[in-house]
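seq/struct pair 1
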Amino acid sequence: MHNVTLIPGDGIGPEVTGATRDVVLASGAAVRFEEVLAGQRAEREAGAPLPAAVFDSIARTRLALKGPTQTPFGGDYRIHIERKDAEGRLETRSYPSIAIALRKELGLYVNVRPVRNYPGVPSRYDRVDLLIFRENSEDLYVGMERMIDEGTAEAIKIISLRATERVARFAFDYMRRLGRHKLTIGHKANVMKMTDGLFLKTAQDLAKEYPEIEVNQRVVDALCMELVMKPEEFDALLLPNLYGDIVSDLAAGLVGGLGLAPGANIGADCAMFEAVHGTAPDIAGKDRANPMATILSAVMLLRYVGEAAAGDRIEKALAEVLREKRFVTPDLGGDAGTRRMTEAIVEKLQ
């Protein structure tokens, strides 16, 4: 039995994670969920947006399925966490969002985001099948910022050989297991010569250990243009943290939107799975949220823990519901609610 920490999150999070729990349980997977709160409700009820109970649960399970959590735009909002350091001393650390706090505290150094077409889902393209590997622990995205004076702010961009080599090796090994053969490194080394230059060179040097994988590179702005023009020519992408966040959302738009985009955050001994999309507060509680991205994130979780057969059954059932288009949410071209779409997937599993 695989114990999984379930974090419902904010906005549509409780709806899509609830739907996903029902689908996973209906698949017959050997999974048991342990629910803990993080986000706005946790802040109201426990006094902190990321309580110690979350880390206690994940310390036991080493697995998490997370719904989206709300983060304010701008200002000086930070998540403050009291944790013990390597010597057991209590210290306070702060982060710009719950997601970043979890990734950093749990050592989840790589974000994997598959992007592909599904039958029945409206899209401008029909042959997209991408794997995006995003470095998760450094770069501008971790929010190391400060105000210099009232009119100037600065951010620190850190790229290290160790972190780049770690994520690149993960990407090459992952591709080797799946039989994928072409990796494109995205960067801005033409301008960020030291930081992005180090990322590019480190990944290229490591590629020599994987001769069966073709490796090329693109400046990230040119990569975005080519993805829009001919996405079917790309197999897998390797990107630093900030570019990876932006490009993976662009890629989701190629196949129908963020409602289709799952994700996995993986570390040495722990993994957290979550959809790419946000909290969508405008439709929260209205039974209109598409649960597909969170369900596909759970499929990734099941394959990660060796429950591939259950994951395959879920993906097949979901694909059938999408193809039939009778019970899909409005963003997928239907008029069903979250609950009815979930029921339709469960019915296919029985």
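seq/struct pair 2
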Amino acid sequence: MSKESQIKTVEYVDGAARMIDQTRLPTEKVFVDCRSIEEVGNAIKTMIIRGAPAIGVAAAIGVSLGANAIEAEDFDSFYAQLEKKCDALGRSRPTAVNLAWSIDRMKRVARDCKSQSIRQIKNRLQEEAQTILQQDIAANQSMGSFGQTLIEDGSNVMTHCNAGALATAGFGTALGVIRAAVNAGKKINVLANETRPFLQGARLTAWELMEDHIPVKLITDSMAGYFMQKKEVDVVVVGADRIAANGDVANKIGTYMVAILAKNHNIPFYVAAPISTLDLSLASGAEIPIEERSADEVAEINNKRVAPLGAVIAHPAFDVTPNELITAIITDKGIAKPPYTESLKQLAGETAKV
């Protein structure tokens, strides 16, 4: 059975950014309509929508909504207001580079249309937001086509966090590779790490794969080494929120730990992410900003306190996996292999020529 995924994480519908409220999954499938750029920013900040590519798509729609709300007679006044709105949106979450990439692309489109009427500019921004959404889905499918060649029939694939249709506009990055392998007729079994503290693996990845009837076994993060030692993991595939020029990868907290375990057990460790996730302006992962989220997300599970009152709690939402632990990086333009300073630059350069 073809696994294209019918999950529509985010859409531009009836003048709103319609998105699945991922904080309500898996017990409820609820849609939220954001009708302003401020509402989109809040949805990103509160993780109603999450996953780097999905955040980028939502941001593009948000910029269009923000533009529609501006009343201006001339371009300079219009753009000054748009830039202020975009700056606020850009502060919603710091680690995922797709957010800044999407906002910059939308602003560039506005500048390129400065000789047109304000109404024409608003229409053009709406068209660009739809284009970014469709390009994201196409990029994920292309990524899947490349990545599935690295997955053998009968493989047990471990993944961390959620890098599926829910993290994108559709199909997925890491889970897109898995879907493409299934579409190619391969029998794939997935081990999904629960991904504490926000439980994206338990709440989202397991739900998404079950929706698409792809075999999945949910395990706690602390079980990863056990299953590798028992030779029940053949390959690891994860997503990414930002990739530095040297191939260092920022992804959900716990990814670094899984990568070390995979290296110790001689298990291939792959990262799947679109070209838009590359940040070649950063020499290494040491320069990637790491978001610190609320301590309550660690201290509570489903609003029930599990830590003592007054406990000192740290909550970095991401960690950085060094490039030497990564077997290959799967993109929508091809597969990058070490040395990443050369292969990533080449793939990004090819994109710039398109």
